Amino acid sequence: MCGIVGYCGKKIQLKKIIDKLKKLEYRGYDSAGITSIKNNTITTIKQVGKIDNLLSNIPGNLHTTCAISHTRWATHGKATHTNAHPHSSSKEQWTIVHNGIIENYQELYDKLKTKPASDTDTAILSQYLEENCNDNIESFITAFKNIKGSYAIVCINKNNNDSLYIAKKNSPLYISQAYGEIWVASDPISLPLEYDYLYEMLDNEFAYISDSNISFYDNNINIVDKKHININESFEETNLNKYPHFMIKEIEEEQSAIEKQIQFYKDKCILKEYNYDFIKNYENIKLIGCGTAYHAGLVGARFIEKLVGIKCTVEIASEYIYKEPILDTNKTLFIFISQSGETADTLRALEIVKSKGFNYISLTNVLYSSIARKSKHILPTIAGPEIAVASTKAFVCQLTTLYMFASHIHNVLEGTFIDYEKDLREVAKKILSFNKEKLDIIAKSIYQSPTAIFLGKDIDYIVAMEASLKLKEVSYINSTSYPSGELKHGFLALVEDGTPLIIFATGSDIQISKTLNATQESIARGAKEIIITNRYEYSKHNDNSIYIDSLNPLLAPILSIAPMQYLAYKVSILKGINPDQPRNLAKSVTVE
Ligand code: M6R
Asked: What pLDDT does residue 327 have?
């Protein structure tokens, strides 16, 4: 987690570096800091809270030719000033910013002569470097032989002005070079738009930047002749435009995102490679992701099973890592789903699957991400940058992609034709047509409730899970989701007068009738019933119902999640929460 921006070059304002750091705030916003070096003097400024707090404490006339900066998502130690990065060693020989986790921090700590005041693994590492290596890059690399864990590290050394020392393992780091300026960042999105060369640091690589030169090394101190890379992505500015928050902007972009997605797949013939020869041997498909991406996998599994008839299982990445499933390498296909393409658990699961020789496809929104770079087969989502922590348009695009994939495989194997483009264009037209006025009123009626319960059967239950996650994330309401048949098996005990009970009713008549019957015991105990349904008869006279116009039950999830994202947004605003950056969370979870 966390974001890093480092700079070495011509004299610039410190504020300019922090402006670049702001683009990484999606990686964490518990504290931020910057260290610069001039004439062997180290100056560090840190602030708890968001990057704007730091910016407002930096005078415009402060300039630098070498600096490292960091925005933190607290892992080891609370979000305090002492724990904020950068961390200097006791004699200030090393000052470092770090993303990732030093796993053997206790072992390193026990060996230290001077114990740091900070609780962070990073401060221990900085002190460890001071006590175990001198100022040259060779000694720095040797010291890392004793470091275990994941890290993207950028350091300043007090005795070397205008120099940066860099180490990387399992956490992304990029370096851009233009005449007279070198930038380092954990995501290319925060690098300058114009550069001559762009390098991606690989695991166990090191770099030494001095003045305008970069030298790359492997972990045996051999010089690496590193090739620069091209990223076919334009990092256009993502602005709020007329919107107050990214979350609502991103919900409002869902129609155009689905349309772009369909067009992109058509223009680039993305699905062509998934032909009969590709798919014919697979008897199992495993879909893997975390959070919202896991929910997309659950819906995607329904698409594939219903349209193709191949058995699917869906796994939470962090759980899958520790499983030893008995699977036939030739008969099992994996699909990894990740908006960011950087989620550590998903990446780790992918590496395990890859090392065992399985074939896999990655479905991601970031085509230069670590997951994309480790994948031969990619199903891109064309959601555009998603800034708000709560995933909205990316989820919708993940479902769109999975529906296209499943329908395409159906067309390849079955010989009958599903016109998925037509189906999805209709969905796109309808996705934002839900009744916002009704939802505004519902939001007002539930925002003070401490709990909320989301229910459904089959695919509706999956939407209930995702809707519950969305509300929880941005409103801090203790929301939970259950299959409707489970209601009477225990959690009815949570229902009190006024508890919101949000019911998804888009499946078969029998499923809907069973779900509605099951909720009667809760309603009798005072629960406030809210129905999301594609049946006009349940919605026409009901102020607490939201109608979604979906004839295809498989596609109902795309239409029923959109109003729930909107509801979560509205509740968040009523509670005075910033929905783009809810407490304790970060957009991209790059630690296991
Ligand atoms: O970038 P990823 O799709 O891999 O992220 C996975 C989850 O961390 C993410 O979906 C998270 O659950 C969202 N904040 C949900 O809104």
From this structure: 81
